[in-house]
Amino acid sequence: MAKKAVSAAPAKGSSMKGFEERLERLEKLGERIRKTDIPLDEALAAFEEGIRLARTLEKDLEKIENRIEVLMNSTEAPADESPDLELFNTGE
Fold this sequence. Notes:
Mean pLDDT: 77
Shape: elongated
Low-confidence stretches: 1-16
Number of helices: 2
C-alpha cells in the first residue's frame, strides 16, 4: 500500500489563500500526524506546515477581531444604541 506524502506549504500565488481552505488543510494535517503508520520525516514536514498555517490563521483572526472591535466602537451608531450580540452568546 502506497503512503501519501504530505506536500510542502502551498506557494503564495496558489488558490489556498482563503481562511476556510487553510483551516481545512490544517485539520487534514492533524489527522495525518495522528496516524501511527506515518514515517517520521512526513510527520515532521506535516507538523512544520501545520505550525505555519496555524500562525497565519492566528494572524487572520487577530485582524478580524480588530475589525470587529472597530465596528463595535464606531461613532456612526447612536451612543444610546447597543448592538445585539445574542449570536455570540455561548449560553453561559
